[in-house]
Amino acid sequence: MNAPRTARDRARAELTRDIKDVARALIERDGAAALSLREVSREMGMGASSLYRYFASRDDLLTALIIDAFDQIGAAAEEADAGARRAGAGYGARWLAAGRAVRGWALAHPHEFALVYGSPVSGYTAPPDTVGPATRITGVLGGILSEAVAAGDLMPPARPLPGPRLVPERILLAYGPPPAPYQDAIERALVLWIALIGTISFELFGHLKDTVTDYAAYFDAAVRIAAECAGLDVPAGPDVPAARPSHPKRGR
After folding, report:
1. Cβ atoms of residues 44 and 18 within 8 Å
2. Tens of pLDDT along 49-104?
3. Rg of the chain (C-alpha set)
4. Residues of 219-237 as b/e, b for ≥16 C-beta within 10 angstroms?
């Protein structure tokens, strides 16, 4: 993205960032459903009419926050995968590295993670603008699996899933139909993706409290189990860098 070129552009970009920062703080305090432009303008000490010059509605502001969150999650996964690939990691280790990066981002930004992967905000419908940013992280998974198939390193399923294949056409257009014996690779990848987000959500929102003693180790184990179902071999042990942020308190 090009940097603002004029003083006015820079001032607008800075105020836009300030508005989003205040909105994130309000979401953390009151929840996404309570977000309003009037409350944001009150917190910033500016007139509501001035705020509308930057965001036409609450939904526009929510969309901007959601796009930012998805882009940051996607960037974290992409950077982790690229680093693991440069280090010579295998496909399973690359996915573990990407998953660890997503978990690390989620623990550092729990309310933003909840905004994109938690309960839908009442009355809000995400526009098409959010699709591209939302699929950056799934693009990492799809790319790793596609490369593993092409290299012959994806383990064939012991028991292929029965048809019909309920796969969106756009996914097939992006990656093509998987060759035999990996016809169900996309369905299995979806299971791997759901396991990743689900494991993070259970940890983040307190559902593993008094059940798991080592959250980071359990996360690695959960990723490894799900990866095996998708045909990826994730080696045991800290073979890739792993950030271990402090565990969040229970609740959102």
Report:
1. yes
2. 888 999 999 999 999 999 999 999 999 999 999 999 999 999 999 999 999 999 99
3. 20
4. bbebbbebbeebbbebeee
